[in-house]
Every structure is written in C-alpha cells, then in structure tokens.
Model the fold of this input.
Amino acid sequence: MAPQTGTFDIAIAGGGPAGSVAAVLLARAGFRVALATLPPRGPRFEGLSARVAAILARHRLPLAGIGPAAQRHVSWGAFQGGQNSEHPADRSRFDAGLLAAAQAEGATVVFQAVAGVHPDKGEIRLANGQRLAARLLFEARGRRAPRQSTELNRAELIGPDTISVAGFVPPRAGSMDSPRIEALPGGWIWSVPMDGGRLWLQAVGGAASLGRTRGKSAVAALWNTVQRDTPLPRRPAVHAIAPRLAAPDLDPRCPRLGDAAVALDPLSGHGMFWAVSSALMAVPIARALLAGEAALARDFYRNRVAETFWRQARVGRDFYREAQFQTPFWQQRAAWPDDAPAHDTDIRPHVGTRVVVQDGQLARREVLITREAPGGAAFAAGQEIVPLLRRLNGRPLPDAARFHRSVLPEAPPRAARAIHQWLLSQGFTEGAQIPWDTANRETDPCNYDPAA
Ligand SMILES: Cc1cc2nc3c(=O)[nH]c(=O)nc-3n(C[C@H](O)[C@H](O)[C@H](O)COP(=O)(O)OP(=O)(O)OC[C@H]3O[C@@H](n4cnc5c(N)ncnc54)[C@H](O)[C@@H]3O)c2cc1C
Done:
C-alpha cells in the first residue's frame, strides 16, 4: 500500500467495537476515514447485553457471532438463581463483522500494527513505516492504548490488579445449559456453553495468585487458586483486567473511545456497552472539534468519561460486597474505589447546564438533573424538558390530560402523555408542588465559566 499521507479527515487507531463502530458512523456522516488495527486473534467469548444488541440493530450494525439471548445463572453469596439474560458473543466474528461494515461504508481499513499515535503531527505511524495522516485522530486501542499521564496511577483511578484466564474446557455438569457466573473464595468464574458440547470458562483472580513463577505455571497457579474442578485450557487467553480511568480529559487532537478512555471490570458486563456508546459520540465530537468548538467537546467527553468510570467502579464494589467472602481477593475489591454510594439518593431535581447531542451536534443546554438521571436529561419524547417545566411556573404537576391541555397543547396527545409519564418516572408526583429548583445555579458566574 502506498503511504496515505494527507488523505483522510479522520484516522483511528484500533479496530475493536469502539474503533470500528466509530469508523462506520463517521464514514456514514461523510468523513473520509482510515482505521489501522491488528485483526481479531484467537477465540474469545463474552456476554453482550440486550441493550447493546438493540443499539447495534438500531444503527444497522452487524451482529455477527452474537448468539440468541440466554438467561444467566448466578451463584453469588446469598443470591442463587436465574437473573438477567445475555447474548453469548464470539468476539472474533463480532469484531470482524464490524470491521467489514466499516469497509463497506467506505472507510479504509489497514491491518497493520500501530507503532505510535502522534496527535501533535496529526498522524498514526504503522509498524511497516507507513503513516496515516488526518485532520483528527481517534485513539481506540483498548487497554493497550498508553495512559494519558502517570498522574493517573493514583490508587483510586486504577482498581486492584486482576487477571482473567479463559479458554475451552471439558463439559462440566450443571454448566451446559446456560451462561453461569459464580463467586468463589479465590475469585469468580463465568462460563458459557458452546455448540458441540464445548464450554468456554473464564476464571478471574487477583494478580497475587500468579505467584513468583512466570509463564504457563503462573497462569496455572491463578487458575487453580480460583477453581480446581477443571483443568487449565490448552491455550489459555490471559488478560489483565483491572478497571482504570485511562484518559479523563479530552485531547482535542485525539479523542479516545472505549477502553482506551475508561476500562471497566468485566464483571460489570458494561464494557461493550461503553465501547459502543462512546463510539456513538465520535460523530458529534468530530464535528465540534473540526468546527473549532473544543470547549464543547471537552466538557461533553469529561462528563461522560468520569460518570461512567465512577458509577461503574462503585456498582462493581457493591457487587463484590454482596458475595460476602472475607478472603483478600474480595476484601480488596469490596473496598475500591471508595465508600461513596453508587447512586446518589440525595439529588433534588434541579436545573444545570450540560453539553448534549442535539441533531447530531454538540450543544450546551439546560438539563434536568434527578436521582434517576444524575447526568442530566435534556429531552424526553423529542421535547426539550426544562423550558417545558418552566411553563408550569411553579404550579403542581397536573394529571396527564391537563398537562397536555395547559402545558403542551402543541404536541400530539401521545407525545404529551409520554413526557408526563417520563416526569412521573423521575420522581415528580401529580398534584404535589414540584420539588425542584428552576434557577440554574450552575450558570451562576461564581461557579461556572462558559468560556472555560
Ligand atoms: C477477559 C475479558 C472479559 C470481558 N467480558 C465482557 C463481557 O462479558 N461483557 C462486556 O460487555 N464486556 C466485557 N469485557 C470488556 C470488553 O471486552 C471491552 O470493554 C471492549 O472490548 C472494549 O472495546 P474497545 O474497542 O474499546 O477495545 P478492544 O476491544 O480492546 O479493541 C482494541 C483494538 O485495538 C487493536 N490494537 C491494540 N493495540 C494495537 C496496536 N498497537 N496496533 C494495532 N491495533 C491494535 C486490538 O487488536 C483491538 O482490535 C471483557 C474484557 C475482557 C478483557
């Protein structure tokens, strides 16, 4: 391939779900896109939530390698039984399908190792010496992307050292009907039955269980610390999986997507959701940055990244606490990152200003912040919420019919009903004085600098 210098609007490093979904959407939005990645390697299976499958379908993205939803059996402290369902995902096929979709949309996909991403020069250098130059770069090399700064090695921003060892194992009695997740004193295991009577088993333990040895015997030591019933797979896939906040701030020359920004504990089952939903922000961020609106992009990115990291870290901690083991593996994880509640139950509904996506562009808007929507909600059923609530002028929320007549007469009845329903779901009650703050305290010049 000839050097690609100067050819692209956008060049992306890394073609996992985050990079390849971003490539598809950016190409569809009319950008000339290049993506450099190593091809998917070796078998790897994960659980994909129904929510991610729905987002992919909504955006006409392929679901290659995604099996039908199966109920997951959970054995976790006091909880024993079926809970939630997940789609078994063959990651090699899934990733390959998304890369093929990026090519089909017109993105140039280069299967080469990335030697370096150089935001200052606007180029990605490949191991074979070629360069992909572009007006804007995206970093999506997952956990292999370098961290933004050494300051991020602070203990609260990187979770306890955790290792996953996974592979095909002989069938296990009781594990061949559905995916299973099980807490054990030395760690936890997740398994999913495959066609042909095979079982994919993932054992997760603390890095300390690798012991002093190296290579396969260290991997076997960790495997045996977590569980002893099943022999180590012949070709174990080993991953370091400590959760971490890798890049809390946006580099306006090279925004990050997916695990390259925030890598979550696989226990959360939220990693692919974050990868795909962060890719959905690639188009509005690219438009803002290329139009010189770096402040909008920076605030949008920072909110999304920080919110995802802290919320998922604390939800994960609570889940570790529920297992009720007193071994070092569980004690460490039940204490990280802090003791703050995962969900702030003290939020009174109030108005703030956030950067939101409106018609594919970033825009600073007033949002309603509630316990259910701590990140702020700007729209419900296609209507901007805060101006609507101001129409109530401090009066109690009427019933659905009067809400339509007096607050939103211009909307079709169904839309008005949907918004009324949404307000109820946010903790508003009919007939009661609405306990919310109409003043936007965050825009007070004392604590908010729109130019910052
Ligand atoms: C063991 C394990 C189990 C997990 N289980 C689940 C689960 O059940 N459910 C869930 O939702 N999430 C799970 N996750 C998390 C999920 O896998 C990630 O969050 C998701 O893959 C992140 O997508 P990404 O595109 O950001 O990064 P990745 O998927 O890591 O993609 C990065 C891409 O960049 C490429 N790359 C990296 N370095 C280079 C380089 N130098 N040159 C060229 N290419 C490069 C890689 O080849 C890869 O294609 C799990 C993760 C692990 C490790």
Notes: The first strand starts at residue 8 and ends at 13. The pocket of flavin-adenine dinucleotide is lined by residues 14-19, 36-38, 46-47, 113-114, 140-144, 164, 166, 202, 239, 241, 258-260, 266, 269-273, 275 (CB under 6 Å).
